[in-house]
Amino acid sequence: MLYSIPWYVVLFQSIPEMFLLIILGFKLFNIDVDFKKSLLVSSLISIIVYIVRRFTSIYGLHTVILIFCSLIFIWIILKMNIAYSFICIVTSLLINGLLQNIITPIILNLFYTTPQDLIKNPWLNIFFYIPNGLIMLCFYLFTVKREVHLFDLKMYENNAKNLFKDKSIFVLFIVLIQSIFIMLINQIFLLSQQTRIVGIEYTTINIIISVFTILVLFSIKGLGDDIKDKVEMSFLKTHLEQMEDLFKALRVQNHEHKRHIQTIQAMVYLDEIASAKEYIDGLSDGYSCTDDIIYVENMALTALINGKRKVAEINNIDFKFSINCSLDGLKIDSWDLCSILGNLLDNAFEAVRKEKDHRLVNLDINCFEENYIIKVSNNGVKISKDEMDKLFEPGYTTKESVGRGYGLFLIKNLLEKYKGSIEVYSTDKTVFKIILPKGEGNRND
Questions:
Q1: What is the spatial distance between Cα 87 and Cα 169, in angstroms, rounded to a whole number?
Q2: pLDDT tens, 226-277?
Q3: Residue 297: burial class (beta carbons within 10 Å; 0-12, 13-18, 19+)
Q4: DSSP 319
Q5: Residue 378, H or E segment
Q6: Helix or strand or coil: residue 194?
Q7: Separation CA 175–CA 181 (nearest Å)
Q8: Are 97 and 189 in contact (CB under 8 A)?
């Protein structure tokens, strides 16, 4: 049965517990929240739960109201989407419930108390929560220090609709709902015990539920890894498509060269020297430089640049590029390099499309001391200061901004992977400046 609690339990247990649930839950999914606003949300939720517990005796109702109010207040105060807020809060509740299932029976036996004593002496609620709260706090500090998270939910931030494009997310919702329900049933059974020593049936059920809860958490981690693999596979697919386009262009060019050489060879064998000269002059005059394959030191970059040259030609964009140093020390996977530059060039092309006169996009790669300096610039729509602050937020997009969707967010994550950085300037031109440290060897074969 649900029992009421005095105000000091709300102050010293409910509010800290809710606060830890919020910051840990979001941190596990790589979402940072404002501490002050989280404390405000925690206080409001705890007050509502306090009122609910005074006027109802149905155990579990307060948890349902806690989840519902959490989603509403987080949406209003923290400005976060309800969909992934639900995932974060319920996952954190599962961890908290798991700790309670393990710790509470142990403390009851150690101090020769029963669940009924929690009702008679409310201070015991605070005392019993201390080890649980300390473990939750240590868990949070560990995730911050080690940058450990179940999966990167941040990529869905500001665009919760993308959560439902993957059917596995529906499975996650169902599993979380089932798990929290089972956890509540287990706690109801514990509170119904009149003695400090619980029976073998409860102990067995408690162990099974705890094991399954841990498996659920590992499943969430596996789901996050699966989503990450899908993103990387998408990058790799784009890279392979670019390479395939390059090989097709090379085959076409090779076929044309063979045909011209065979024609000239036949003219020479027939002693038609004048005709051969005329044929060669005609080829020279009519040969379009845009049909040439531009070769650079890196094969993946060759494919990317030639592909973007075609896109620029179709859209009447003056695409210029220069590579002024050796790429041997550029230690970055080919598909990641193409993902970074491909996204930046796509954004630059989009930014200049509204220019009526001269549409200019530049790609420059230089070396300076121990770093590679890569710049992608355009003379298109400028980025305002307000847009600049939000440019790398996941899901952020405007019709006129070069920062669209998740491209820049993914670029920033890829650069962090290689200990690089990105800077943006928007004055006469908009410039994206990438700094990548040199490494031994080359991963771009």
A1: 10
A2: 666 666 676 667 666 666 766 666 676 677 777 778 788 888 888 888 888 8
A3: middle
A4: E
A5: strand 371-378
A6: coil
A7: 10
A8: no
Backbone phi, psi, residue 316, to 5°: 55, 45
pTM above 0.85, yes or no: no
Mean pLDDT, the chain, integer: 78
- Choose among 171, 223, 222, 224: nearest CA to 31: 224
What tokens does 304 get? Answer: 């990317």
Q: Which of 113, 105, 160 is nearest to 132 (CA)?
A: 105
Q: How many residues are present in the chain?
A: 445
Q: What is the pLDDT of residues 366-378, one digit of tens each?
A: 988 888 999 999 9
Q: What is the three-class DSSP state of 367?
A: strand
CA gap 255, 261 in Å, rounded: 10
Gap between the Cα atoms of 368 and 440, Å rounded: 16
Distance CA 430, CA 433 (A): 10
DSSP-assigned beta bridge partners for residue 18: none
Residue 364 has phi, psi (to 5 degrees) of -130, 130
Token reading at 225: 């890894």
Q: What is the pLDDT of residues 174-201, one digit of tens each?
A: 777 777 777 777 666 666 655 555 556 6
pLDDT tens-place string over residues 331-358: 888 778 888 888 888 888 888 887 877 8
By the 8 A CB rule, do 145 and 138 touch?
Answer: no
Full DSSP string of 26-48:
HHTTT----HHHHHHHHHHHHHH
